[in-house]
Specification:
heterodimer; A: mainly alpha; 8 helices; B: alpha+beta; four-stranded mixed beta sheet; 9 strands
Chain lengths: ~160, ~120
Amino acid sequence: MRGRAAIQVIVCAACLALAGCRVTKPGRAESGLADWTKLHITVKGKNDRNPLSGSPQDVKDGKEAFGHYCIVCHGLDGQNTGVPFAASLNPPVPSLASQQVQSYADGQLKWIIENGIAPSGMPASHGILNDDEMWSIVVYLRHLPPAGSLGEPRVYSGEETER
Amino acid sequence: MIKTGKLFTLAAMLIFHFWTAAGQQPDRTIEIHAHRYSFSPAEITVRKGETVQLKLISDDVPHSLLIKDLGVNQPITKDRPSVIFLTPKQSGDFHGQCGRFCGSGHGQMMFAVHVEG
């Protein structure tokens, strides 16, 4: 009983120590450990197959679904182009074309889109997007355009505030 | 000679119009309202081979009714109803959804067509 109380006190102290800290860039060890844990342990769906064939129409649909709101954090190209806070979040918004992201299986990418990842800024899209849209986004992630080729999201271009 | 040609064209157009209109004569009409974030009604039951007219109305923002397995993808605008005809050739349950992103609950906008057979 005393042991459990001690653990609770330690956990509370750790939470207090970590809560409200200023945002800093994570170290290599922290990033490496987190990436490995996500890829091999916490992110499910490894065996889920994408029901879409990956046709040009699927890529187009995925690009459109991605454009609904993913672009606000990931940019139009999925590589953070024009997103001002991408590098200063902790963890930073990853380039979706990076080896780290592309290492995930299709089912894991869909799982991440559907459930989000904590602790990070990645939200869950369950109920916001339907299954077809999430799978089409996975197809788009496998066919991302060259970085910068689509420009930046309009919300960061100043056009929105001019209206 | 030109007049005869024009008359012939007009007659052909009229015949085609009435012929296609007759082919689309519905057995009944079902009115479906789309609004953030549901369809009302959210499911319908039709008989195999029955032609139903779906009158689609948006009560707020643009939506669409997407039923892939029935070949339906009809935009629904607020200003005027969209009308489509449905004549299912197969019995079963067909899953539909909103095919146009409409906000935070878009993914919950489901629809179902039950075809009895």
